[in-house]
Amino acid sequence: MEEKLRQLRDWILECGSIVFFGGAGVSTESGIPDFRSVDGLYSQQYKYPPETIISHSFYIRYPEEFYRFYKDRMLYVNARPNAAHRALARLEAKGKLRAVITQNIDGLHQMAGSKEVLELHGSVHRNYCTRCKAFYDLDYVVKSEGIPRCSCGGMIKPDVVLYQEGLDDRIIRKAVAYIRNADMLIVGGTSLVVYPAAGLIDYYRGNRLVLINKEATSKDSQADLVISGSIGAVLETVAGI
């Protein structure tokens, strides 16, 4: 492990255009459960499977049931950035990290101080009226009874990508450009099974692909460096350079 951490630290010193691609595992250390972990949302018992509840068609047909689950299991208003979030913000401040590309919707990277954050699946902090497009923050949604409603009477929808919805083309193009131009790509806290987001790392053409995850991924054989362990502990160790 020490040798791998030394290698990672050396590469960070050598590089000036690092990109980080992260998944749910980055936020589990902040107390936000991973959908696919044993203790995650998939292990909870509901009338419908989570994949069904957080789909576009379910939101349209059963908005009250959608919001009951969404408020209960998708919102963690007391969560705070962990060591991984803070380490990435430090690397950006040092001019090493160009962008964070995240599958998470919790906004913790921005809370930690990161400036260039591409949110592939949206954010719980942005909510819009489906009728007049008026903006509402997370606090408004949390405090609303049942279905959050706009002052115009329209239903409010979180700016998150639900099942059956496509990713934002502009964000995808920007993410691809960052990854293509990166001299180092660090992938952390993701099992790399959620597509099309996971396919983005295939655009990397460099020779410093680093995978940091507690469990093996399908891309391990393609990586130049694989570190098994806590994403927070690893990044905190090397972020000081």
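Next protein, fold it too.
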Amino acid sequence: MTLEQLRIFVTVAETLNMRAAAEILCLTQPAVSAAIAALEEKHATRLFERIGRGLELNEAGRTFLPEAQGVLAKAAQALQTLDDLSGLVRGTLRVVASQTVASYWLPRRLARFASCHPGITLDLRVCNTTQAAASVLAGDADLGFVEGYVEEGVLARHKVGGDGFGLYVAPRHPLTNRPPRREDLIKAQWVLREEGSGTRNHLETCLHSRFGLDLTELTVRLVLPSNEAVMEAVSDGDLITAVSHLAAAPRVRAGLIQALDCVLDERNFSMLRHKSRRMGHAAQAFVEMI
């Protein structure tokens, strides 16, 4: 049984006339008659009674008609869903982002997309860079946005932005009076983000290129799971940390923390997508927008 056979049956049942049904369906009358005959023969069930030159639905036909109409309605609904998805009338965009990107770079862009496409549901998860990459790799997210370096062959990585990066302390910290030296950083007490975070990974790269230091040479007193947590710890003690200038700016303006006189490499924000998975219409529209 095909949708075309169901469509022909329903049209004949509603008109009770082969010729009229053929005209509505843009088919020949023999084609319509053959489709009805094939349907009846296939299932060994007559659906119409031929009364003279007219047609009448018999009991089987009257029972089958609402079922056939229901199937055609479901098929039309399925086609409408596909049309809606292609036209961005409905759908879901699953995004995963590391903390700095999710807090300071992504919100305005998501808000603009939501305004342009109100029928699209936005699903945002926030984690660290390693976790974000794993989500895209596993197919749990359509797009990932991270600030850390990701080395994974099946993930395509595209630069979409960036920000400055620096070392921060409380305003009364002794290192605020002069640029820090290598030995100062070794003697300092540190609070860092967790392993796998883009912030921690970038600090490791900067310390190595700028001072020839490894993280293992630092005295790390605290490891905390967010930028806000490490900055809060810094503002109330003698600790030192590294965070994005974007993340630190509100606390700097409030006089709670201060950047050290130490130039570190800027870092990139990257978009991740799986090379082998075709992007949906919502993801494509978001990528085009940014």
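About the second fold: The domain at 91-162+269-289 is CATH 3.40.190.10 (D-Maltodextrin-Binding Protein; domain 2).
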